Amino acid sequence: MAAEGQPANSLLLAVGQLTKLFGTFAACDGINLDIRPGEIHALLGENGAGKSTLVKMLFGVLAPSSGQIVWQGQPVRITSPSAARKLGIGMVFQHFSLFEALTVAENIALSMDPGVSLARIAKEASDLSHAYGLPLDPHAHVADLSVGERQRIEIVRALLQNPKLIILDEPTSVLTPQEADRLFETLNKLKAEGRSVLYISHRLEEVQRICDRATVLRHGKVTGACDPRQETPSSLARMMVGSDVAHVSAEGTSSKGAVKLEARHLSAVARTPFAVALKNICLKVHAGEVLAIAGVAGNGQGELFDALSGEYPVASDDVILISDKPVGTRGINARRLMGAGFVPEERHGHAAVSALSLSDNLILARSQSDRRAFLGGGPLGLIRQDAVKKAAKRISATMDVRKSGENPPAGSLSGGNLQKFIVGRELDRQPTVLIVNQPTWGVDAGAASRIRQALVDLAKSGSAVLVISQDLDEIFEVATEIAVISEGKLSDIYPASDLSREKIGLLMGGMYGKTETAETAHAH
Amino acid sequence: MRIELERRAGVSKLFSILSPFIALGLTLIFGGIMFMMLGKDPIAALYSFFIEPLTEVWSLHELAIKAAPLILIAVGLSVCYRSNNWNIGAEGQFIMGAIAGSILPVVFYEWQSPLVLPLMMLLGMLGGALFAGIPAFLKAHLNTNEILTSLMLVYVAQLFLDWLVRGPWRNPGGMNFPETRTFDATAILPEMIASGRAHWGFGFAIIAAILVWFMMRYTLKGFEITVLGQSQRAGRFAGFSSRKMIWFSMLLSGALAGLAGIAEVSGAIQQLRPVISPGYGFTAIIVAFLGRLNPLGIVVAGLVLALTYLGGEAVQVSLQISDKPIRVFQGLLLFFVLSCDTLIHYKIRMMWYDLSETAGKGTR
Known about the structure:
Chain A is α/β, with parallel strands linked by helices. Chain A has 18 helices and 23 strands.
């Protein structure tokens, strides 16, 4: 099943009847896939469709249960990532495998042959990153880099091996249009050099834009092999999801109520040398409104979230107000008690603890706000497991969280399902203010549309919603108002209908055409 | 060929329970082989190592005496380690607890009252906690590495004790031996039961283990410890303070180590000497991990390690061998327990063929 009418040896990679069983569960079930030299090949599918399992087998992380992999006409067994690299396969994972305490160059050195000097690696990495338009400082510490920059390291690391096939797992989920455009240029450059790209995504527009062929997976099986340019987004989506994806409707969210969340000239110094300082941020979110904050990765989104959530309270009380009460110096639980809910960007190790069960992860966010329901025994603080489990079950049912078992560890859920749980955990309280950072990054289309609709519905029911996102499609789907953050400064807030992508692009570059807001004028 | 550990999809409940027993069995087999190679009868050796100490009442008491400090310290350490604070200095906190608790019977030896003993225990806990407070402060406010500071403070405590018993606290009627005066009867921790020497230190250990087990399993505080140990960031999201947790876990483990110290001195030694611990504070680290950082597991692990100490002494006497094989034996036990536990979570994957060769065939 190598290829239609092509001699097998002209293919770079041919996968035949590849199957991976976990116990009796087939994560990949008889997958056929072939990649020609010099093509960008899309692998489409929802989370849990088997995309990751498939590429892990191609990259030697998992051993196939059966089936064969033919590389340049020769059947091969890829038994480890280093074997894959030797063959000429490079991989950029969705969850980056980087050591945060090490520098960019040191991280790259880890995947290279030992014996190459660090200085040379730094030099090569720097040259290569500039040649492909992905500039990187090889001496920066990974911990201080944004998600977008971390991805560049992974790409450069893969490119340094001079691969014939490079696999990218959901690469644009962390990028802005401009960053994504730059990545596409890089990919086209790679293609022009005769390299092949296996491009995993669920963003149909970009697949149609850059990919030559597509293979669609659902429930571990190939449900379609096509030329994406001959298809419509909805026909692709149908192959992926098996049914039509619900359209997010933002109607009915424009009615302005009272101000529920306000920041007045919020400034915060950078906590680490590479973090972004917040500079004089003013914003207001009214009840019934969704304010979306767009921006390129690493422009202060995380810092803004930290300040607004109270994970890192600020020095003065009256720069942040929730329902007109000053809360700047209060901690996150005090703010939760005033009706606020928070969803941070990183799922694993921030919004949730992977090793703990879903019910424990529910307590994580709500031990104080739902103290009466979840805790007993007065000062002892006994956790009422049955009440918590019941609530976790309710949330899973409401948000359609698909999981194995009654109360599995958070780490066993797919990204989309865990995110649905994390968002549902807050929605379940009916918060009057919800602050969400990157609500759907790395989440499949079905889950993303569900989460977005839930945010819109929350605003409709009279809450104030603040969405920080790098995904412009998402922003235009949910926002009633839009502002842009750049280098720790926030632009004016515009009604969503007044902004185009181009205008946002300019604002992202810091071109404000700044008109001082009324409040700013008063203060001076 | 290459060997890799591959994470298992699920953890077998049955083998989680069986694993310590399998480890014990393997230790017995390989320990027996070792004794055989030494030219001793393995059955007799294993008997006097593992069984004989359990056959007589007096040696059961000795077992409890040895196990008590190990369990007390390890229970405190488990809280530290679960919350990702690496207190390695329990030995020092043990000694400082012993010193602080001995202030009453050594300096104020004329005061005799039923209050003396409880006050001694409290002072012991306070001394241990304050001494653990030093690395806690350094970590919480100056971001130093607590592994180094707590470990180095052990030597400070040891030398401080040495100086005390040779200098200011030396027994004036003690023929110049480096010892303090022996404690008054009111300052001696009584036996738990009439049949032997085992003092209330063992009772404290069991009570502490049960309380900490309860805290870890049922309370929000236990949850906080687990969360902060897994991810500081998630802990912050939950509104937990990792700085407060440094203080809490270090002070708690310091207090328990201090209590172990004063209980040992008051119950078993009954005076201060230059050396009051055969390394309980360090062995307790092993006990904590053998017990999988679970307080109830730690009780069992503490008893098992105390047994290897006793059995070791017994074999030295009965078989006339040095204490080196005994250390090997303890090492075997640790090795098998840890590897059995590892194999519950991981399976071994052998890769038989040469990778470079396969890869080469593919490209050429």
